[in-house]
Each structure stands twice: as C-alpha cells, then as structure tokens.
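Please, structure for the following, as tokens.
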Amino acid sequence: MQLLIATTNPGKVREYQQLLNGLPCELMSLVEVGITQEVAETGSTYEENAVLKAREYAALSHLLTLADDSGLEVDALSGRPGVQSARYAPDSPTRIQKLLAEMQHIPAAQRGARFQCVIALARPNGSWETTQGICEGQITTEARGTHGFGFDPVFHVTEYDLTMAELPEEIKNQISHRARAAEKMRPVLERMLRGA
C-alpha cells in the first residue's frame, strides 16, 4: 500500500522515511505522484492546516495521506511566529536572521520556545485523525549546526545542550516535535493500513 506524504520539502520527506521506517507501506511524495497543486494553509491552527492538506491531497491522489503543520512558538514574542512560521520570512536563512534580530535584546532566561507539530492522516473518503507533538527548548543567539532545516539551527535543546541542527539525526528523530507526533500516529497508521 502507498502512503502519500503531503509535502514538496525533501528534508521533511527524508525525516518521515526515517520516522515511519518499518511500516508496511511505500512512502510517496507529492512530486512522485505528480501532484503540483498547492493547498493553501488558510487555517488559524496547526490542526486546521494539517487536516486541510491531508484531506485535499487524499482526495486528489486517492491515497491514504499524511500531512503536517508545525511551527516555532517563542515565549518572548507572544507565541510568534507560530502557525505563520513558514510565512515569517521568504526563506529559512531570512527567517533565522529575522528571529535572531527580534530576539537580540532578550535575556537568556526569557528565550523559551517550543516546536509544535500536528500530523493529520486522511483517507480518500475524507475521514481523518490527528496527533500532536511538542519539543521544548530555547532560542540561541546565533545559528549553529548543519543538520535539519527551518529554525533547527537556532533551537537549543536543553537536555542535550545542542541545537536541533547539531543533534545527530537518530537523536533528533526521537525527540523532535515531528518525531513525537509521528510516534503517536504510528498505531493509527498501522490500524488504517490494516483496513480497520
């Protein structure tokens, strides 16, 4: 059975290939199934956006479809960029620069942040289920590390004293917000793959 991962982001596809390793399905990206249409993220929450994408791409592809929406919530910025993380600036380097500039005068004790992810799994008939994962940390004063994508280089994971971009992939894939949501989704996905 095929499972569509509703993204064009190659980094996210690779991450899901590792997170969902061992499941009895073939993971496909939007590119691989020939879908070029973008679904606008018009929701006001991660869950609304994830469900919107999963249902729309499941209907277009006629495949069981997994979509997520995630973001970085910074305490000192009243939870911004939040659900607007991908639209905070035009590209990852600019997003990081903008965040560091906004955080420039914020003391270490007030740099708390979290990554949050909601995964939606939709059937072609429109039914869906969701899971959520959160990873707590702090915003650094400079970008560090070369792994990952997005805000990973400026998100410090306290328990490892490294940024998400400095963590080995096998550690990141155990503790990240996406990993935590995917772990909760695994039994749901297994049940759907069995047709239950």
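The helical segments are 10-19, 46-61, 92-102, 169-175, 177-193. The first strand starts at residue 2 and ends at 5.
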